Predict the 3D structure of the following.
Amino acid sequence: MKQIKNDYMRLYDALKNERASWMPVWKELGAYLAPTRGFFDGQTPNQGRRIDHKTLLDSDPCLAVEVLCAGMMSGLTSPARSWFDLSLAPEELMELPGAREWVFDVKKRLEEVFAKSNVYGVLHGFYEEIAVFGTAAFLLEEDREKGIYCRPFTIGEYCLGCNAQGRINRFGREFFMTGEQLVETFGKEHLPPQIASRPTEEQARQWHKVFHLIIPNEQYLSFWQDNHHMPFASVYFLESGHVLRQSGYQEFPVIAARWEVKNTSDVYGKGPGWKCLGDVKMLQKMQKTKLVALDKSTNPPVMVSANVQGEVNLLPGGITRYNGTSDGSVKPAYQVQPDLQSLEASIQSVRSTIRSQFFADIFLSLTAQSYAGMTATEVAERHQEKMLVLGPVLERLKNELLDPLIDRAFNLLARQGLLPPAPPSIQGLPMKVEYVSMIAQAQKAAGLSSLMQGLNYAASLATVRPELLNRVDYDCALEEGLKALGVAPALLKSEEETNAPMGSRSPQPASPQQVQEAASLAADKSPGTSEK
């Protein structure tokens, strides 16, 4: 392809300039909280970065980050259990012929693709990046073997841009490829002559900087199906401006999320790492002070008399010669008596603060407390109460991580023909996603408690006026309760299937005493009413 003007480079430089003020803080966060993360100072691939262990004397902050990552994986997107459900909007459409079965099959297909792809491995690193740096991103693309493939990024490697609503819709990154990789990826005919014609092995393994830019396509035409007129343009080019590939995406392929943002003008977010960076620095300094105090108490500085002959041997059993007719003593220059107990208590206090900022105390308390004498239901309820603290985080991650992830994966699989065909009765109808992870269920537990209180109240009034029970829609109460518990909608039969075995008999309403007993029994088992 012919060399073009530096229009794309100017667009990338504009994104890079917006990122410049964030880089110094990211470097500090990486040094103190994630020493293996980050791409700074023009690094090239396959270069080991030295970790400053003189700075990282206490690994507890890094452990707190790992605990948060593990907790987010298990509480938000656990690979071991279902964390989302699909349905049609509005829900009445689920009664259409074949709707429930098709939605259930689509959900299972998505779960199978997530399990066999690298989604969950990428998500673990994603949670670490967003917890420490406040921003995380990865690219979700089509894979012919597994359906989808995620390309993870680390902070400092990419730039982001957002629209007027504060949504991420621009992405740029710079990375390195060898001459051999360039030929394999883009084809020799698309490379400049000086790269395509290099014959030696050393030249083929030489690194070249490549830029990738994804932006809204100004030439988007909905009635054209070629990749040059899609909603988003994708361009690979070299530092010289030579374009390697121009293509496009039907939807924004980068999943980028922020922990929290101050306003819609902020492209990048701030997470727990930003809030506790000062505490982490203080902890490392306190550990250094403790080590210096221990060193001085066990190996104190000494004063040596001028009459001592030669070097002073301070090793165990060492001999130092001196003139016996004169003072030849060797004694400490000053007494060091550190209060190690108070210093250790201060260190533990700072550690506790850092763990709280990363919610590690919440997740660790689940394993630290004793569950002896508790039922499985009570253990689950306590787990949900702990997860409720992370509820506000779910809202932003839902909009910037979970929704785009499922939408993008669904569209990729649909275009590859890997999803079951929709029944004619529901083709073209909108779908909605409902999250049933542990954190999401903890939020809904309060609603289940209110539901049970309402049913108890209705049952108590029915003891005086039994006809009031006819105004309670128990079918709707059952559905809402099962949703709060995270039970899949496919568990419920349709109205026709429910009434079929009963023939022409209409269901008899339960007596007030039966309703009150059932409601009381359910209230004893609901998360919001259990005794602690």
